[in-house]
Amino acid sequence: MRVEVAKYAGVCYGVERALELAAEAASSGVEVHTLGPLIHNPQAVEDLKQSGVVVAACLDEVDDGTLVIRSHGVDPAIIESAAEKGLHVVDATCPHVSKAHEAAEELKKGGYAVVIVGEADHPEVEGIMAHAGGEALVIESAAELPERLPSRRVGVVVQTTQSARRFREVVDALVPKTNELRVFNTICSATGKRQQSAEELAGSVDVMVVVGGHNSGNTTRLAEICRGVNPRTHHVETAAELDPTWFEGAEVVGVTAGASTPDAQMAGVIHAIESME
What we know:
Distance between the termini: 8 Å
Oligomer: single chain
Largest sheet: 4 strands, parallel
CATH architecture of the largest domain: 3-Layer(aba) Sandwich
CATH topology of the largest domain: Cobalt-precorrin-4 Transmethylase, domain 1
Shape: flat
Strand order of the largest sheet: 1-12-10-11
Strand content: 15-25%
């Protein structure tokens, strides 16, 4: 079998930056915690643990040392509380996520009813919600829009890893429901490039494999997009999950990886596929 890799695939700048900041903090010799997993990739989080970076479920679990704010960002009140506890705070929030925070704050201050396109239980969306003053409508699709909105002046911000198509559908559905609509497209360029190149590749290969954490929203969306054009699409975290029966009769296999997937993890999957008889 021949393996083709998507033009844009794997770890993005924001994730790479977060990993580097955490590793740098760990090298200082002080106790280091992240508030929740630094990125949505279990294998990378385990590697960090081996180097001394421990995941804390909440701020109460961290008494001293360094606290690394994960790439998804947090409620600014948490950073303030950490500083009050005397913790050294390293903010590894992805710069693209920070732009979404700024957009949500601007909309709130401007008196707009804020709509966030994203997953309500995702840590990034929770952070955006906090920057919107804790008052926003969170939806994943146009179908979830209520018949009546709290205001005819609506501002929209989107989770950085959302599908561009889904975002457009929500905006289009909002137009007839509003008198004034202000839209911030905060989908990061890395996400858009990965989605487009993955979709193009999936349509030209026999089997498509998407590599990344099962808890990763951006990786899951890549799999959904690929599956839309190629039903023989499979989402795996590591090579151990590959099933040889998936590749029966296949000549060309496409591979892509989410923005939170380290290059070594993707390389391991590619090697395993190429080693199959």
